[in-house]
Amino acid sequence: MSNLARKLQQEQQQQTVQAPQKVRKTNSWLSPGEKILGVTFCAALCFGAVHIISNQAAIYELNKDIQNTSVKLEDQQKINNDLSMQVGELSTPDRIRSMAEKLGLKLNDNNVKVVQE
């Protein structure tokens, strides 16, 4: 019986030794070159998106500055118009004559020359 047991043991060892180990080859669906191209494309896409967004932000800031400047310009034009109306009111001949009389100046009609524009 010992021969029979040894034969079984040898057969089992041969089966385990004879069974070739199956090497699994991982088969990637992308080659390394395709991976590099993909990463490069994604990086370029992200860079372009950031560049476009930063340009839009700069354009928005410039438009806001232009609008603020135009509002300030309109306000200054209103102030200038009000001041020119005040100049027109304060430079009337009657007012100038009354201010001259208050300061002690007298009107001499012989020395007055009329200038027309």
Automatic annotation (TrEMBL):
Keyword annotations: Cell cycle, Cell division, Cell membrane, Membrane, Transmembrane, Transmembrane helix
Subcellular location: Cell membrane
Comp. bias (Low complexity): 10-21
Stretch list, region Disordered: 1-25
The keyword Nucleotide-binding belongs to this UniProt entry's keyword annotation: no
Function summary: Essential cell division protein.
Protein's name according to its UniProt entry: Cell division protein FtsL
Organism: Robertmurraya beringensis
Lineage, opening ranks: Bacteria, Bacillati, Bacillota, Bacilli, Bacillales
